[in-house]
Amino acid sequence: MKRALSILLALFLLASFLNPVKAQCPSEGNTVVLKAPAVSKTPDGRLVGVATDFVITVAPGSGHVYVETWPLSEVDMQASARLAAQIAGKVTGKDMSKYDVFIQVKTDTPIIGGPSAGGTMTVGIIAALMGWKVNPKVMMTGMINPDGTIGPVGGILEKASAAASVGAKLFLIPQGQRIQVIQETQQKTIGGIVQIVQTKSEKVDVVEYAKERWGLEVKEVSDIYEAVYYFTGHMLPKPKAPANVIIDTSFLKDDAVKDYQNTTAYYESVKEKLKKSNVDYSTYTVLKEALDQAKAILDDSKEALDSGMYYTALSKDFQARIVLRHIDWYISVESPEDVSNLLTEVNSYINQTESLVSSMEIKGMTMLQAVAAAEERVEDAKESLQEGWKYYYSADYWNAIDRAAYAYERAQTARFWAKLGERFAKGETIDREELKETARNYIDESSLIVTYIESMYGNVIGNDLMDTIQKAEQYYGDGKYSAAIFTAMEARVRGEVFLDTMGIDNETILREKLQEMKEAAKTAIGIAQTNGLHPLLSIAYYEFAESYEKGNTTDDLVNAMIFYQYARESAGVFLIKVNESTPSVPSNETAIPTLPVDTNTNGGSTSTPSTTSTTVPSSGIKSVCGPAFILALALVPLLRRRR
Question: pTM for the full model?
Answer without folding.
Answer: 0.80
